[in-house]
Amino acid sequence: MDTRKLRINGKRLRSTLEEMAKIGGTPGGGVTRLALSDEDKRARDLFVKWLEELDLKITIDEMGNIFGRRAGRNNDLPPVMTGSHIDSQPKGGRFDGILGVMGALEVMRTLHENKIETEHPVVIVDWTNEEGSRFAPAMVASGVWAGALKQDWAYARTDINGKKQVEELERIGYKGTAPAKKWPVHAYFEYHIEQGPILEREKKTIGAPKGILCLHWYDIYLEGEANQVGPTPMEGRHDALCAAAEMILKVNELPGRMGGNMVATVGEIQNYPNSRNIIPDKVHFTVDIRSWDDGLAIKAWDLVKKDFQNIAGRRGCPIRIEETWRVEHAPFDEKLVQMVMDSAGELGYSYLHMVSGAGHDASYMNQICPTAMIFAPSIGGRSHVEVENTTWEDCEAGGNVLLQCVLKTAGAAQ
Ligand code: HGY
Ligand code: MN
Ligand code: MN
To answer: Which residue's alpha carbon is at the smallest distance from atom 2 of ligand 1?
Structure first.
């Protein structure tokens, strides 16, 4: 058969996404499916069941990454791999990550039912803990698999309740036995929502990112002096929350000071004892800096770190800084990015060459093999929120582009 005419089953893709959205579904229409939570387990179990229906060879590695392998005509060849992540943000969206896993599943189902033979094997993957929200950092399991992060360090990362990542992997039964170590991959495609406003604004159906920004994450710990808010005079206080407040505004000003081409955000904060009539004496907050220019991001950090130290000194609030994680910016394989655009054009979809401000497991896969992504538009440019949304038509369009890219790189008989 002429596989250029092959299309995914959009209705079936929709029904798998709707099925998954019930797992961890929130009243506001989003999902909370935090990495290694009971909800993540339930979604993983369903995903594995669906893989078994396709007679795929299933492997779960020591980081809980789930691989489903479909044989090719020549199984000595490195596989084409596609996938994304099942875990979500707290009160996150119904499409972030899961669209790429269900899109890959739909491609596998389409190949299976049409008995398509490919030269290379094809592998589908669910990467553990892409979000990095419960256990920082993000993309931790693809990072270990790619050899960029140490497994013991990843295992020891704890959530806000002090639970270790490795304990939770064991608890949900997904601490596999296969080594979480890279093997040769012919090409990697990740299908994902854009999570920004560009495609909608430019009225384009498919995004073809040239790559992903660098992501740099830091953790800041401040010590103050707790006291009764009433009798304690303002001068001489060591108020950790006021110190943090000054620092947070410095982060917000940073991109402007560096001349743009950057975003910088404080997204998480804990304040102790967090009682309205006690002066705060402990604060932890996070810093996220992203840019296409890794050097600019590091220069920005060096600048704002000095500000932090000055503020901490002036307020008498000792500071501890953890340089938690950095992943370089990821310029994708130009030939594969072109293939995404060509395939979109052949399918009659409009497309746009762009950049990804959101991090993805493709950042690490790009260090291993030729990599590219396919974006579907986000309605209102919203993501990491319950109202995250993409039309079913656009979900189907991206799935068809993914199918064609897999067929082309895996060497399907035309
Ligand atoms: O942080 C990110 O961009 C991704 O959601 N992990
Ligand atoms: Mn994602
Ligand atoms: Mn995300």
So the answer is: 359
